[in-house]
Task: inverse folding
């Protein structure tokens, strides 16, 4: 399981930020060729990002590049970036499985022999993209996550973005459901007011409670808050350990049915407990399952 | 000869004389008495008010070769130094020594006075701007003496820096010489750096643009030490008095460093009731303070005092009950000025009280933690805050070496890469603060602990902080930015860097003109 609690955007035309992108501890850094870069600077940013991918140490952060949409500079971006071995490409404004197929064939055309296959994260930010979420999620095995881009999406709806985010509730749940059905991750839209720490906390808690596995981030200051929310709490870990203990005990006693505090422990509960413990181990919160 | 940190220093330096080499932060003990300024009598009918500076020069009288002292609370808004030196030039004086606690760009006219022989020596704790650049290119025949704030206090008390006339830029004065810094159009807050000058100079002149009714109150410097009062139109520009650096940084890397530094402070175990803290007015230092503040609020911690240059941020912490006292040697903004005027828990302290190593105990000795900056640091933890990467003087110790020596834990916060240059080098160009007094370096890519502090290293590792060896951090920086070539300087010594105890820790050599 790849850890994508936080995915931090880094402007692709800023050498200083590209150089320092790995110091903030984000699970993924997204080196951005799209919104952060003016059209006149796209080629320079492409060069900078290609160079950064080969020379900058991003530590444990996954290296993701956000390319431009398919109807603009995506082909040039993929040609320049994929041979430099990013871990994944974030494709904006994906609207259909066909879009994914097109990206896959462009990637495959320029991947070097023996290169670790470049993954795809689909950014759904149009009403069409949300409507097609499941087919996009299932379009190719390279697709490892769906993410939501709420700013463009709400513009497409003709809705106003609000602090509470009621206007994106449907989109959020559709993205989460589609990703879960396809067995991949769902990543929430960024919280765009970098100075509103309370708002970020509430929004991230909401995203986690709905089922998102992580959140896009536009500012390094947001990372700790996002991690704190997506990290399993000690009570989560205690509960998960009790579930696993109960199921093992039941198995040892030859019983197919386990219970915990009077409630039946079934497969979904075991799966959830295993996911919590796996995450806790990845984060070093526990050393091994007791 | 080499001093205790391996810096090559001549045994005799022309214009300085026989050099006493740095022997260790606490190795040199005082062996002198305090100096005593001459005793004076003033009759009830005597008048201290003088019409202008020319008359003051004549009354004292100021003569060739004297040492004139000034303080720097007006920073880049100072008008008094230029005014006094212009008077000296007008009267044809020569060969004066200027003892100015810090030199700023506004003091550029001093260059002409040096070229014309009016000024031939400079004694300061910090300098930036045109004078610093000219000094680096060989402006003075004699090396400039760069001291620390505490070291200047010590030098004045001991008579090593003998002041003939102290010119005290006073935001407010009465006609009998009581002074304060909290009233008048050019209020600057504390007058702490002028305290030793007022106490030990042979003659003390107050220069003010605001004459209050006798007796002025509060009194920072009393009438008993002031000989003359001169009213001028303007002592300085209030815009230049307020430092421009007193905002919390928004730079993500700076914030990352600040966050790590705050976690380091927490991990030391010193962040508890009674915590005593000093931090600078720079953006990263204030960001650290803001995170420390949140930690204090969360755990209901009440600190004992904050020290040094005071900002509105520290004032707010005092007023919110997060610190019981502020000890203020220099105010950095309008809030600091307001607070010191009205809050009895905001104390005005002199440079000697603040940081002189040779008295019965200075305030830095009571610090738990100090946060400092660095231009360069070497793998022995020696710090340079005097010269930039081009070898030109761009700062000075100020209170750096003083606070580093006094505090229980000294933390240097710095970007591992400054632009395209690694901050960690094999040997700093100019040693200012000895490595034995620096405990921890916090960068965006890891934390290095001085090997002398095994105890701290263990605590930081246990707290999960990214502790690395300093050589490892150096390699990391060089991997990104390459290894900078050593700068070549000339042989001519343009400044000596005096440690707070009066020994010479390093020299600054001339850069190409």
Result:
């Amino acid at each position: 399981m790849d850890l994508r609690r936080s995915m931090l955007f880094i402007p692709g035309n800023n050498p200083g930020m590209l150089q320092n992108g790995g110091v903030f501890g984000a699970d993924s850094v997204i080196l951005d060729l799209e919104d952060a870069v003016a059209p006149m600077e796209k080629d320079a940013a492409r060069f900078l990002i290609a160079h950064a991918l080969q020379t900058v140490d991003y530590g444990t952060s996954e290296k993701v590049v956000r390319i431009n949409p398919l109807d603009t500079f995506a082909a040039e971006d993929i040609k320049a970036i994929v041979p430099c071995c990013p871990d994944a490409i974030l494709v904006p404004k994906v609207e259909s499985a066909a879009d994914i197929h097109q990206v896959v064939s462009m990637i495959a055309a320029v991947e070097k022999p023996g290169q670790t296959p470049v993954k795809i994260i689909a950014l759904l930010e149009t009403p069409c993209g949300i409507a097609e979420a499941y087919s996009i999620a299932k379009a190719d095995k390279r697709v490892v996550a769906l993410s939501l881009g709420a700013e463009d999406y709400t513009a497409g709806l003709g809705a106003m973005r609000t602090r509470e985010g009621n206007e994106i509730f449907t989109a959020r749940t559709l993205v989460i459901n589609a990703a879960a059905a396809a067995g991949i991750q769902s990543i929430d839209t960024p919280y765009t007011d970098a100075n509103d720490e309370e708002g970020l906390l509430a929004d991230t808690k909401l995203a986690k409670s709905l089922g998102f596995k992580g959140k896009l981030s536009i500012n390094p200051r947001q990372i700790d808050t996002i991690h704190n929310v997506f990290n399993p709490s000690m009570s989560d870990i205690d509960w998960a350990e009790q579930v696993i203990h109960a199921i093992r005990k039941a198995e040892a006693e030859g019983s197919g049915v386990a219970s915990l505090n009077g409630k039946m422990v079934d497969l979904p509960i075991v799966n959830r407990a295993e996911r919590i413990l796996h995450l806790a181990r990845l984060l070093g919160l526990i050393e091994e399952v007791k | 000869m080499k001093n205790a940190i391996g810096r090559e220093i001549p045994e005799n330096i022309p214009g300085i004389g026989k050099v006493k080499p740095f022997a260790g932060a606490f190795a040199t003990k005082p062996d002198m008495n305090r100096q005593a300024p001459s005793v004076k009598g003033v009759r009830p009918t005597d008048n201290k008010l003088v019409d202008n500076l020319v008359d003051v020069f004549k009354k004292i009288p100021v003569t060739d070769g004297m040492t004139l002292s000034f303080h720097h609370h007006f920073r880049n808004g100072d008008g008094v130094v230029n005014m006094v030196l212009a008077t000296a030039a007008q009267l044809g004086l020569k060969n004066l020594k200027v003892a100015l606690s810090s030199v700023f760009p506004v003091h550029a006219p001093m260059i002409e006075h040096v070229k014309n022989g009016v000024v031939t020596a400079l004694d300061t704790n910090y300098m930036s701007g045109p004078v610093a650049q000219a000094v680096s290119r060989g402006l003075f025949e004699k090396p400039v003496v760069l001291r620390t704030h505490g070291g200047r206090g010590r030098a004045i008390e001991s008579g090593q820096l003998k002041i003939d006339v102290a010119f005290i830029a006073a935001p407010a004065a009465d006609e009998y010489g009581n002074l304060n810094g909290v009233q008048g159009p050019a209020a600057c807050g504390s007058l702490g750096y002028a305290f030793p000058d007022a106490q030990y100079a042979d003659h003390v002149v107050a220069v003010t643009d605001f004459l209050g009714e006798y007796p002025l109150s509060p009194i920072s410097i009393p009438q008993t030490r002031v000989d003359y009062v001169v009213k001028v139109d303007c002592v300085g520009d209030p815009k230049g008095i307020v430092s421009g650096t007193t905002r919390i940084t928004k730079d993500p890397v700076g914030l990352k460093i600040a966050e790590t530094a705050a976690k380091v402070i927490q991990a030391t175990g010193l962040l508890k009731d009674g915590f005593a803290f000093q931090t600078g007015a720079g953006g990263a230092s204030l960001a650290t303070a803001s995170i420390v503040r949140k930690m204090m609020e969360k755990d209901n911690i009440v600190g004992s005092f904050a020290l040094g240059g005071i900002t509105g941020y520290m004032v707010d912490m005092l007023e919110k009950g997060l610190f019981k006292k502020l000890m203020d040697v220099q105010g950095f903004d309008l809030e600091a000025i307001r607070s010191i005027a009205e809050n009895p828990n905001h104390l005005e302290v002199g440079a000697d009280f603040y940081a002189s190593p040779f008295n019965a105990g200075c305030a830095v000795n009571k610090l738990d933690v100090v946060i400092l900056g660095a231009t360069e640091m070497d793998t022995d933890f020696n710090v340079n805050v005097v010269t930039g990467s081009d070898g030109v003087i761009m700062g000075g110790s100020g209170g750096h070496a003083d606070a580093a020596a006094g505090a229980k834990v000294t933390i240097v916060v710095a970007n591992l890469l400054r632009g395209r240059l690694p901050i960690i080098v094999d040997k700093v160009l100019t040693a200012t603060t000895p490595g034995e007094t620096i405990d921890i370096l916090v960068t965006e890519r890891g934390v290095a602990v001085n090997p002398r502090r095994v105890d701290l290293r263990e605590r930081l590792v246990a707290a999960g902080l990214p502790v690395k060896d300093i050589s490892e951090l150096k390699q990391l920086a060089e991997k990104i930015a390459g290894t900078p070539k050593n700068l070549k300087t000339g042989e001519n010594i343009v400044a000596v860097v005096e440690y707070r105890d009066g020994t010479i820790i390093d020299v600054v050599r001339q850069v190409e003109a």
